[in-house]
Amino acid sequence: MPGACARGPAAAAGDAWLRLARLALVLLGWVSSSSLPSSATSSASSGSLGAVSAQPPLPSQCPPPCECSEAARTVKCVNRNLSEVPADLPAYVRTLFLTGNQLGALPAGAFARRPPLAELAALNLSGSRLQEVRARAFEHLPSLRQLDLSHNPLAYLSPAAFAGITNASASSPPGPLAELFLNHIVPPDDDERHANRSFEGMVAAALRAGGPALRGLRRLELASNALVYLPQDVLAQLPSLRHLDLRNNSLVSLTYLSFRNLTHLESLHLEDNALKALHNGTLAEWQGLPQVKVFLDNNPWVCDCHMGDMVAWLKETEVVQGKARLTCAFPEKMRNRVLLELNSSDLDCDPILPPSLQTSYVFLGIVLALIGAIFLLVLYLNRKGIKKWMHNIRDACRDHMEGYHYRYEINADPRLTNLSSNSDV
């Protein structure tokens, strides 16, 4: 007991300090608890707003018959027998493949969507049996840079088919379209829609009327279309053109085609056509283009007196690529002669027909001779009937002439005339 009493004042002081420490801790805890909800609430609200603002948009759905890759921004609807463009294409698409389908026709606004396909840059419609591309079919595609319509039997290509890709005013900047592929789009000969119009004229009208939409075009491919000629101003509205592919057609001459305004042209492919010679006007225009490279392989060059200027130009120019491979096709005595090895004395205009033309004339003579022989045989087999028919015609003519002669004698003799009138009375 006395020890407990002796320790009383020290223990009391320690208890007092302990109580003060506990009270300070309680006060600190209350302050922190009162400030924590407000800060937590503000941080939570800011976090929720950030989450809302940073949340990516929901990915667009992929059309059921197609394959989509949002990472590559590509949609493939290949060999699906589609009869129309899918309506629910995702807005993120940059490259769209619609090849190997049964589209038939592209109406106006075929790719107009809400939201628009603002990022679509490459559109491939090759081999989809397209027969008609109507006015403003590619409207509302402001980023379209590459369009492929190859391998479609286009019986109708509207002059305004490419309108609507960009603004139509003359002062508008060039449109985004840089590459246009129209290879093998010639319709079959038995198509009635194609029978009343020139295929060359139809394509030329679409290229002329493209306006600002085609003013920025850099590559144009028109291969394998059986083109016999191209109108004079078909390239007038394509000042930015750098690559022109006209190979595997039936072009006979380039006399009416002007290249003067194609100052940026870099490559011109004219292989596998029906060119026989090039005239001075065309050669001068090519020589005036600073960067152009021309390809002329596999044309049936006629090495006669009209070829002299072209041969002289070939020997001096570097415009033609592979010019050492160019050889003569006609006349027969010049066949397979290299153009660069010809001299002016080799080029004459003999009236010798090409072998193919000679063969045609021989065949025509044989056919006419056969027809004549058949005609004579028919006359011989019907000689009796023909002889009887001739006798009948002779007798009928004789009777007719005797009647005329009798009336003439009556009219010439007055006595016979009176007699004839009395007998009538």
TrEMBL record:
<keyword id="KW-1133">Transmembrane helix</keyword>
<feature type="transmembrane region" description="Helical">
    <location>
        <begin position="361"/>
        <end position="381"/>
    </location>
</feature>
<dbReference type="InterPro" id="IPR001611">
    <property type="entry name" value="Leu-rich_rpt"/>
</dbReference>
<keyword id="KW-0812">Transmembrane</keyword>
<dbReference type="GO" id="GO:0090090">
    <property type="term" value="P:negative regulation of canonical Wnt signaling pathway"/>
</dbReference>
<dbReference type="InterPro" id="IPR000483">
    <property type="entry name" value="Cys-rich_flank_reg_C"/>
</dbReference>
<feature type="signal peptide">
    <location>
        <begin position="1"/>
        <end position="33"/>
    </location>
</feature>
<dbReference type="InterPro" id="IPR032675">
    <property type="entry name" value="LRR_dom_sf"/>
</dbReference>
<dbReference type="InterPro" id="IPR003591">
    <property type="entry name" value="Leu-rich_rpt_typical-subtyp"/>
</dbReference>
<dbReference type="GO" id="GO:0005886">
    <property type="term" value="C:plasma membrane"/>
</dbReference>
<keyword id="KW-0433">Leucine-rich repeat</keyword>
<dbReference type="Pfam" id="PF01463">
    <property type="entry name" value="LRRCT"/>
</dbReference>
<dbReference type="Pfam" id="PF01462">
    <property type="entry name" value="LRRNT"/>
</dbReference>
<dbReference type="InterPro" id="IPR052286">
    <property type="entry name" value="Wnt_signaling_inhibitor"/>
</dbReference>
<feature type="domain" description="LRRCT">
    <location>
        <begin position="299"/>
        <end position="350"/>
    </location>
</feature>
<keyword id="KW-0732">Signal</keyword>
<keyword id="KW-0472">Membrane</keyword>
<protein>
    <submittedName>
        <fullName>Trophoblast glycoprotein</fullName>
    </submittedName>
</protein>
<dbReference type="InterPro" id="IPR000372">
    <property type="entry name" value="LRRNT"/>
</dbReference>
<dbReference type="Pfam" id="PF13855">
    <property type="entry name" value="LRR_8"/>
</dbReference>
<feature type="domain" description="LRRNT">
    <location>
        <begin position="61"/>
        <end position="95"/>
    </location>
</feature>
<keyword id="KW-0677">Repeat</keyword>
